[in-house]
Every structure is written in C-alpha cells, then in structure tokens.
Amino acid sequence: VLFRSFKNPAVDESLKSLLISETKIDLEKAKDLLNKSLETVEKVNTFKNEDLHNSFYELANSTGSKPGELFKLVRIALVGGTVAPGLFETMEVLGKEITVTRLENLIRSL
Prior knowledge:
Elements: H1 13-23, H2 27-43, H3 49-63, H4 67-79, H5 87-94, H6 96-109
Helix pairs in contact: 1-4, 2-3, 2-4, 2-6, 3-5
C-alpha cells in the first residue's frame, strides 16, 4: 500500500469527481486552494515534515479553511486518493519537485 501511495495519479475526470465528492469544495475554490498550496510548497525552506506541517496550518488559518479539508484536497492531488501515509510525510518522501509537479498538473486540469 505504501508504494502505491506514491504513484503519480492520473489527472482525469475520476480524479476531479473524487476531489469534489470527498472535499465538498467547488472547483473554483479547490483551484484557488491548490494554487495557494503550490505557493506554500514553493516557499518552504526545508522540505521536512515539521516545516510543511507548520506552513500548511498557517495556510489553512489564512484562508479560513478547515485543516482537514485543505489537507484532503492536497492529498488527492498528490496521490489520487484519500488514503495514504500522513500528508506531510508523503510530501517529504515525494520531494519538492514531484510535489510541485503533481499540484501543477491538477491545477492545470481544473
């Protein structure tokens, strides 16, 4: 299961449907939050669990989003599902470059 979690998700209609059904966020708001998530990822100095955790909690607070809602959205963008190891651990293992690419791919498709 761990290795399946790190496969690059196919950005297609089923992923968009999952995004909407699991997060209950409309596509416009999802795109905005994903863009802000991308900006957050790009600004993180050290791509480590603790720094990612702190940065994404700050993002949730600044956008008025519930942390769980935001984290589920990002998790779906990164792994194509809602079940994976912890979000920040997943991001650390994927690395900054892959995390940025996967966020960009989903943002482009919305």
